[in-house]
Structure formats: structure tokens, C-alpha cells
């Protein structure tokens, strides 16, 4: 049996594929490489010593997506990472985001139904909660107001999956809401390397530490937190990847169902704590300045990870020092040869 991984050449997808190969699963990757590099496929093979099938296919391309299912009749489940994910870009290019994320997912789901494959894990985001009365987010909360087209695509896909399940409860669906993935594989061979100026905190810190950007702007010093900077639930990407294996195990043990899980550590860290830890564990400077708050940012957002622990037997194991060390190790291995 094989697992189809859409977006498997990307940041979270590649780490998940490594973990799947480590437990001897057969993996087929579909990725159009719009935000990733072909070299990642070789790096995955190098890390694991295992082979994978790779198709450079856009999930909107129904004909070629069907070909993948035709050529691999043993595809039993799908882990669906493929999507565009930059919040700021989604505000500027809403049509591109709605088209890629929504039509891409629709095409994938229709193709799965056609080939009678009804087991799927979907990469959602804590962003679907919007702003709630408390800072710790739990799955029993209703989805809230999204503040950008990217977040709206995640909320709409979640709703789409719910409707599909209610219409045909032979589907077996797991929706995973990620908090803030950072870090990289311990080999330093794969990690997050966004094109252009990064939006997210850790990729920005990595570029400042590597002297590609002269300083970090810390957005806001007047939040109601211990040091005035905003707090998030940062999770090591390898822990996140392992969460997918547990979610898959759960689906394999169920005949059908619709499950939603937060994947986070449950421990918020402020921007200041991340910067200070990164500097300390890597013994490197990260110049920074405090600037205005970034529009739309919440003060504190972190997961209640109880449900994933109780139902999946999953909990994050790596700490903030590991996350900062592994992020920098990826830069050292890939950019400072
Ligand atoms: P990424 O950009 O590194 O990976 C996504 C991959 O999907 C890329 O390799 C890209 O080339 C591919 N892709 C995009 N559109 C495609 C299409 N139409 N057809 C085929 N391939 C396509 O992003 P990531 O950080 O690994 O995120 C993976 C998933 O997790 C995304 O759906 C993202 O929205 C979601 N997510 C990410 C975060 C985060 O902070 N990184 C947080 C919450 C949710
Ligand atoms: N930050 C800075 N300077 C920067 C970048 C970020 O101070 O240059 C701060 C932000 O203000 C925020 C924190 O660092 O307080 C984390 O910001 P990120 O952009 O790394 O992450 P967000 O929590 O804003 O967003 C992430 C994902 C989104 C997802 C959201 C909610 O990037 O895709 O979590 O789950 F929607």
C-alpha cells in the first residue's frame, strides 16, 4: 500500500516523508515545485536511504493527477500539504490563493473519490480559530473570523471536508491544525528556506544571523506579555511530522470518521524569548529593533494539545533550544559550505 503526499517536497511535507520512510511506508510525492526545490527529493533519499516516487504535477491538473492514481493502484491514503501559505501574499493575490488552495483541493478530492480512496489528512492551521476570548485554543471552539484569504482557504477547506463526510460517511478524514512550525531535520539537509524576504519569524532570524539581512524587526513591544512581545506556540517540524504518522495510524484503526486535532506544544514563547534563545544556543548575534505591531497579530496564541495526546498518543518532545539549534544547523549545512 502507498501513501500519496501532496506538497511532499515542501517544508513540512519533506520532514513527514522522512518519518514515513523511516517506518518503511511506501511514499509517492506529488508537487509542482512552486515553493520547493527538486533537490529536496534527493536529500530525502540521502537521509533515509530509501526510494520514493516523485511526480512533478500540479494538483489542479486533473489529467496528470489521475495518471498518478492510474499508475499507482495501491494508493490507500493521502496526506495533503500542497497549497500556497504566505499570509501577506494572499492579501495581494486572493484569486491565486483561492484558485490554488480551493480548486486544487477540490480536484484532489474528486480524484480520490473516483479512485475510491477516501482517507485523507489535511494540513490546516490554528489561524482558523481567529481571535477568541482566551489565548489557549481548543478543538471544541468554533472556527472564528479569518483575517486574510490564506486563512479563509483553510477554513473553507475544513468546511468542505465536513460537508463531504456528512454526505458520505465512508470518508476517513483527519484535519490537523498546526501552530508555529520551526526547526529542521537534525541532518541539516532539509529545512525551511523561503524565497525572497521571509514573513515568518524563524526564517527571518536565520537570514539575519547569516548576515543576509541586517536586522530583525520585532513587531510590537507593548503587548500584555512578560516582556511586551507577542507569544506563539512554536513546534519542532519533526514533532509535527510525527503527529502525521499518529494521525494516519488513527485513521488506519478507524473504519471512517472526521477528526480534528491541534498540533502544538501547549507552551507559548515570546518573540524576545525566541531571539534570546537563538542567540544563546548558537552563540551568534541577531541584531534587532522594536517596531510597530504588525496588523492582525494576536497577543498570545497557543494550543491545548490534550486531544492529540489522549486520542493519538502524540505529544511534542523537542524543546525551544532544539528548535533554535536545528534551524541554525540547517543554515550552516546548506548555506555555509
Ligand atoms: P511549503 O510551501 O514549504 O510546502 C507546500 C508545498 O506544496 C510546496 O512544495 C509547493 O511547491 C507545493 N504546492 C503548492 N501548490 C501546489 C499545487 N497546486 N500542486 C502541487 N504542489 C503544490 O509549505 P509548508 O510550510 O510545508 O506547509 C505545508 C502545508 O501546511 C500548507 O498547506 C500550509 O498552508 C500548511 N500550514 C503551514 C504552516 C506553517 O507555518 N508552515 C502553518 C499552518 C499550516
Ligand atoms: N514577528 C516579528 N518579526 C518578524 C516576523 C514575525 O516580530 O519579522 C513576530 C510576529 O509579530 C508574531 C511572531 O513573530 O508575533 C510569529 O510570527 P510568524 O509570522 O512567524 O507567525 P504567525 O503566528 O503570525 O503566523 C503563523 C503562520 C500562519 C498561520 C498562523 C496561525 O505563519 O500561516 O501562524 O496559525 F496562519
Q: What is the gist of this entry?
A:
This protein is α/β, with parallel strands linked by helices and 337 residues long. The chain has helices at 11-22, 39-48, 62-71, 87-92, 94-114, 149-167, 201-209, 237-253, 271-282, 306-312, 320-335; strands spanning 2-6, 26-30, 53-55, 75-80, 119-125, 136-137, 172-178, 180-182, 216-219, 231-232, 234-236, 257-263, 269-270, 288-291, 300-303. The protein binds nicotinamide-adenine-dinucleotide and uridine-5'-diphosphate-4-deoxy-4-fluoro-alpha-D-galactose.
Question: How many distinct helices?
Answer: 11
Report mean pLDDT, rounded to a whole number. 97
Hetero groups bound?
Answer: nicotinamide-adenine-dinucleotide, uridine-5'-diphosphate-4-deoxy-4-fluoro-alpha-D-galactose
Task: Count the E strands.
Answer: 15
What order do the SSEs take from the amino end to the carboxyl end, as H and E? EHEHEHEHHEEHEEHEEEHEEHEEHH
Percent helix range:
40-55%
Q: Taking Cα atoms only, what radius of gyration do you get, to the nearest Å? A: 19 Å
Give the terminus-to-terminus CA distance: 39 Å
Shape: globular
Instruction: Provide the spatial order of strands within the biggest beta sheet.
Output: 3-2-1-4-5-7-12
Main sheet: strands, sense, barrel: 7 strands, parallel
Structural class: alpha/beta
| Low confidence ranges | none
The percentage of residues in β strands lies in 15-25%
